[in-house]
Amino acid sequence: MTLSVAGLGLSRGSRALFAGLSLKLQMGDVLVLRGANGSGKTSLLRVLAGLTAADQGEVRWDDEKWTPLCASQRAKVLYLGHVNALKDELTAAENLALALAFDGVSVPAPDLSYALDLAGLAGRHQLAARRLSQGQKRRIGLARLQLSRKPLWLLDEPTNALDAEGVKLFTAMVESHLQDGGLACIATHLTLAIDAPVREMMLGGREAMA
Amino acid sequence: MNSVAAGVISQPVQSPERGLWLAVMRDLRLGLRSRAELLQALVFLVIVVSLFPLAVGPEDALLKRIAPGVVWVAALLAVLLTLPRLFAADHADGTLEQLALSPYPLALIAAGKMIAHWLMSGLPVALVSPLLGLQFGLDTHELWVLGTSLMLGTPVLSMIGAIGAALTLGVRGGSILMALLVLPLYVPVLIFGAGAVEQAMASIDYSANFSLLGAILLLGSISAPFAIAAALRISLD
Question: Are the C-beta atoms of residues A160 and A138 closer than 8 Å to each other?
Answer without folding.
Answer: yes
